[in-house]
Amino acid sequence: MARVVQKFGGSSVADAESIAxxxxxxxxxxxxxxxxxxxxxxxxxxxxxxxxxxxxxxxNPPGRELDMLLTAGERISAALLAMAIxxxxxxxxxxxxxxAGVITTAAHGxxxxxxxxxxxxxxxxxxxxxxxxxxxQGVAQDTKDVTTLGRGASDTTAVALAAALGAxxxxxxxDVDGVFTADPRIAPQARRIPQINYExxxxxxxxxxxxxxxxxxxxxxxxxxxxxxxxxFSDQPGTWVVAAPDIxxxxxxxxxxxxGVAHDLSEAKVTVVGVPDRPGRAARVFEVIAALDxxxxxxxxxxxxxxxxxxxxxTLADADRPRAIEGLRLAQRDIGFTDIIYDDMxxxxxxxxxxxxxxxxxxxxxxxxxxxxGINISMIATSEIRISVVVGEDDVPAAVRAAHTAxxxxxxxxxxxxxxxxxx
Length: 424
Prior knowledge:
Elements: E1 2-8, H1 16-31, E2 34-40, H2 46-57, H3 63-87, E3 92-95, E4 102-104, E5 113-116, H4 119-126, E6 130-134, E7 137-140, E8 146-148, H5 154-165, E9 169-174, E10 195-197, H6 198-206, H7 214-223, E11 227-231, E12 239-242, E13 260-264, E14 267-276, H8 281-291, E15 296-301, E16 309-317, H9 321-330, H10 332-335, E17 339-343, E18 346-352, H11 362-372, E19 379-383, E20 386-392, H12 396-406
Parallel strand pairs: 1-2, 1-9, 2-6, 3-6, 4-7, 9-11, 10-12
Antiparallel strand pairs: 4-5, 7-8, 11-12, 13-18, 14-16, 14-17, 15-16, 18-20, 19-20
Helix pairs in contact: 1-3, 2-3, 5-7, 6-7, 11-12
């Protein structure tokens, strides 16, 4: 008997009909001889609705109480799914993250999993139940308060449970038929990737691909958990995320130079102007940012100008921009810069693939594709298997499609379908 963890996103349980469809799939999996643990997200836009309600009551709600509120969405989904499974003649029990043994740090809104003690889950499985766990949540080890793991982190809950339970694999059900070479909403000719390695999936997730949460992929790689990304709306084979993909001869990804194109519209660019071009001043800029617990993505420092000053530009999550600018303003006299400017109308486009390690000319092909359609590049960053550029926000869709075509990723079959319209 195999042990399987299945995770269903919000679009997969958006209404009663969708929950019934998920229940049917779960029961079928159990009837095939598997022990099944289900991790479930809140229904549709329930988390957004709860967040909006909280901010109408208090524009700056206390983190502890916000976590208490937001975790209600997953508990509702879990209980409804258990009822739907019962209606199909099987038995199911639903647990909160705390009841399931998900132990976390105490950072409200962005807690991290420390440990999972799955004794209660194992006991329920031994009794023949389907176990349903509310995703995205746990309990703080020190304070015993309810915590949330950050938006999209039900994926992480599922993989962590799969590792703790010794599951054969973890299935992530969403509203697309797997991982595609680009966002199907922007690139209709995107191809489904049959198998992809953890390294490439990490880069795709880190650079804007919404199909899997970044921490989920990090956890899967560390614990060597195979992840199967599938649609809950179809029976298509999906995508396997594994350590070393085994693509059959003639498979679409064999000898591929680029695996996929990712984009991110959630960043902003900040430029610190007139920084004295002396040792330690750039360090002070980023010490201030680090002290605010703000993550930086891309960095560019201009050459020194005639007055021995320079400008330092960097990108960060747009949600963190006001906090970063305020912190830098407070440190302006200490650092000695003259001004701060920002641009929140930008987007990042990245081409990703292990093939670029051994193939020269990737950068030239990428940049030529953008130049051909008149797109200007304002920042560039690279890693061993990624090239990212910052372009204007309005240029992102065209840039994604141009890069996708330039690297031969277009499909003629029109296989990229987003069933519920969200891509999750």
